[in-house]
User: What shape does this take?
Amino acid sequence: MIIRIHRYPTSNTTLCGPLTESRILPADTYYLTCSVHVKSGATLTLNPGTTIKAYAQDSSGRATTLVIEQGAKIMAYGYANYPITFTSVLPEISLPRIGTWGGVLVLGRARINSNNSVEGTANVEGGSFSNKLA
Assistant: This one.
């Protein structure tokens, strides 16, 4: 099966790696090619009409995810006619499909009912799930 992507990522539209400083994404299509970790103190702002298309895996075979770490922020300002969209790079006809990318993770300090961890977040504060209150 050949998957065609109508637009290819450029250095301006590729998102990958740690985000240690605040960044504003103007309305455009961006490509998540590996996990992005928004670090404490940084804010990722998505303007109306922004689309983030994610690949299923990075070059190491790990799921691509957008991780908002403890102390970081995501500000997403969408409207009905200019939505913020998170999706896969797969053509719309192939979606929805489970496992096409890792999703958006917001790591806080709330208690959950699992003792698992999220792939790629083992060394991130809040990345390991625990029943203990911080």
About this structure: DSSP finds no helices and nine strands in the chain. The chain has a mean pLDDT of 80. The longest strand covers residues 29-38. Residues 28 and 50 are 5 Å apart (CA to CA).
